[in-house]
Specification:
- By secondary structure, the chain is an alpha/beta fold.
- About 35% of the residues lie in helices and about 15% in strands.
- The protein is built from 15 helices and 11 strands.
- A 9-stranded mixed β-sheet has the order 3-2-4-7-1-8-11-10-9. The protein has a two-stranded antiparallel sheet with strand order 5-6.
- The radius of gyration is 20 Å and the shape is globular.
- The relative contact order is 0.19.
Length: about 425
Amino acid sequence: MRDVYIIGTGMTRFAKHLHRTEKKLVETAVERTLKDAGISNTEIQSAVFSNSLWGYFTEQHCIKGQVALRPLGIAGIPITNVENACASGSTALHTAWLQVAAGQNDCVMALGVEKLYNEDKLKTFKAYNAGVDVEEIKAHFAGWYEVMDNLSLEIPQDQDNPDGAGSSRSAFMDVYAGWCRWHMDTHGTTQHQLAVIASKNHFHSSMNPYAQFQNKMSVEEILGARPVTYPLTVPMCAPVGDGAAATIVCSEAYLKKLAAPRPVKIQASVLGSGTNRPIDRDDLDIGAVLSRRAYEIAGMGPEDIDVAEVHDATSFGELHQTEALGFCPPGQGGTFAESGATRLGGKLPINTSGGLESRGHPVGASGLGQIFELVTQLRHEAGPRQVEGCRIALAENGGGNLAFEEAAMGIHILERQI
């Protein structure tokens, strides 16, 4: 396999773009990415297009990438459409990486877009149900509610609303709540620790001009915010929003042709799917399994990572991934966050973009938004949110839910070359 380098990244701000179409969001992200790479659209030999719900909202199915890219003069080349729930962005990058690594192409673009904000909030919340087995959806959530019913954890009555899933909130918030309650009951994790993570991410996003939310929030403000479903409050959960992001990857031979490249090398690109593991088998967790594979490919370990972007659809998602990725032992994610280790200036800054909770989570673009942040960090161009001296970065992007874990996940390890 050949070495693969990122030479360009770009994105829109993640926000509520009610009056901008998917095409217009893609146009902005692509233009910025080409400019960052210092190449024209005629240099792109192949494109991989990530999206999950464009068809749900507008009935644009089947040829999304071709529809979005032809107005930009990108046509005649292979355009591959990928859909993998919230892991669609990392799936697009993995596919682009594979094309270059295998010698099929020398310059490939991965891009993703999503428009989730809709004046019909019920329609938006129902859209997320597509990330589970819809034929077995009742049995699926019954399994999670059974987990919650068998816990000894005391739930404040004013913070629980079991009838709101899919109507007043994304049903995935109930998945995360169930998972988190199990973790609290098993390991002693606290709601305060979840608020510490959310507060940290709001602090990070206050310095990110591409973030949906750019306001700082204290731990007390987050704990006192409107409950979603215990132990989650609104600022602990990713907002509904829109956006697009893109990345261009190339071979070493192509890299040498560029006049002023600022490359970042992809040391590992891993894609996988979940299993029917028991909820208490941390060693079989999809994040643990895939990260071990990625570390082995890169010849590194979790101790080598300087900065990470992880999939935090809720603050518990970040807590869990710090354990699964080996940054701290199982059961100690909350303590790790409380220690300040994951904050800028800490041992391992995580989600310096603000994460999904605060930067935003337009599903098809989220994984590539992570790459934009990490490339910016590794180029040492992140301004006030810069992680000093960082050289190695990790992105983890999960999507969907089957049984007790994500249905799909992509992990990338990147290294500074400049």
